[in-house]
Amino acid sequence: MNVIFQKIIDTLLPPRCLKCGKILGDANGLCADCFNEITFISKPYCEHCGLPLVSENTIGKFCGNCLRNSKSVFRMCRSAVVYDEHSKPLILNFKFNDRTENAAFLAKWLRLGGKDIFAQKVDIIVPVPLHYTRLIKRRYNQSVLLARELSKLEGVPCDCRSVIRHRKTKPQVDFSGHERIRNVKNAFSVKYPENLKGKRVVLIDDVMTTGSTLKECAKVILQAGAKSVDTLTVARVIK
Q1: 119: buried, middle or exposed (CB in 10 Å: 19+, 13-18, 0-12)?
Q2: Higher pLDDT, 1 or 131
Q3: Which strand (E) or helix (H) includes residue 127?
Q4: 236, containing H or E segment
Q5: Can you tell me whether residue 204 is helix, strand or coil?
Q6: How far apart are CA 159 and CA 221, in angstroms?
C-alpha cells in the first residue's frame, strides 16, 4: 500500500533536482548534469586533514602544513566535496532558504566523505551549535539536521545538547584569516561533559573554510574529556 501511495505522490508531485529543479525519474537528489558538476574529494588527499594532494608521491601522504605542524586538536578531518560555484547553491539553499529536505541527501555525501573516520570507529556524532539568538532567527540549525540524518545512516548516536555556543558571534563570512579565529575564540562550552568523556567524537558542519570554528569546538570537547575529535563537513574551501 505504501508503494502504491508513493507512486501516486510521485505522479502528482514528481521528484525534482535539488539544485536546478528539473523533474527526475526517481528521487536521486540531483539530475545527471548537476551531479557531474560536483567535485568530490577523493584520494590522494592528506591522511590527516583531508586536503586534496597533487599526486600520490607526496611524502608520507601528508600535506605540507600537516608535516610542519604535527600538533592538532583533530584526529582526522574529512569533507565530501569541494565548495565551489556548483556545490555552493545547494548548500546555501539548505542553510538559509529553508531547503531542509536537502539534509537527507547531503548526509549521504557526509557518509561517503567520512568513510575513513567511521572505519576508525566513532562513538558519538556532535553538530556545531548555533547561538540561541541565531537559531531563533533561522528556526533550524543545518548542522543538527545533517548530524541527525547521518546518525540514522551510520547507527551512531547523535548528541545535539552537550556542546553549546554561549557567546554570540558574527557570521564567519564577514571575516578572513586571523579575524575568524578571534571571532569564535571562547565562543563554545560543554554543558554536559559526562556525555562526551572518553568518547570518540565526530564534529559535523556544512562547510570548512579555515577550520577556526571547528577547532574552537574541538578544544572544548577535548577539555571535557573526549578521547578524540574528528571533523566531517559536506564541503570545504580549497585555495
Answers
A1: exposed
A2: 131
A3: strand 124-127
A4: strand 228-236
A5: strand
A6: 12
Which residues is 202 bridged to in the sheet? 125, 230
Task: Measure the CA–CA gap between 53 and 46, rounded to whole angstroms.
Answer: 6
Cα 2 from Cα 10, distance rounded (Å): 12
Torsion of CA 23, 27, 29, 34, to 10 degrees: -40
Q: Which three cell numbers stand for residue 60?
A: 608520507
The residue to which cell 545533517 is assigned:
146
Whole-prediction pTM: 0.90
User: What would the grid cell of residue 197 be?
Assistant: 568523556
Query: What is the C-alpha to C-alpha distance for residues 6 and 11, in angstroms, rounded to an integer?
Result: 9
Q: How far apart are CA 221 and CA 224, in angstroms?
A: 5
CA distance 183 to 112: 31
> How far is Cα 209 from Cα 217, in angstroms, rounded to an integer?
15
* Assigned C-alpha cell, 95: 542553510
DSSP 157: -
Q: For residue 180, count other CB atoms closer than 10 A to its CB.
A: 20
- Quote the distance between the C-alpha of residue 36 and its chain's center: 21
CB contact set of 178 (below 8 Å; sequence gap of 6+): none
Examine the pLDDT at 3 and tell me if it is beyond 80.
no
Structure confidence at residue 1 (pLDDT):
45
List, for residues 54-85, the tens digit of each pLDDT value. Answer: 765 555 688 988 988 878 999 999 999 999 99
What are 229's strand-pairing partners?
201
Structure-block grid coordinates of residue 85: 560555484
Distances (CA, A) of 157 to 104, 153, 186, 195, 239: 16, 11, 26, 11, 34
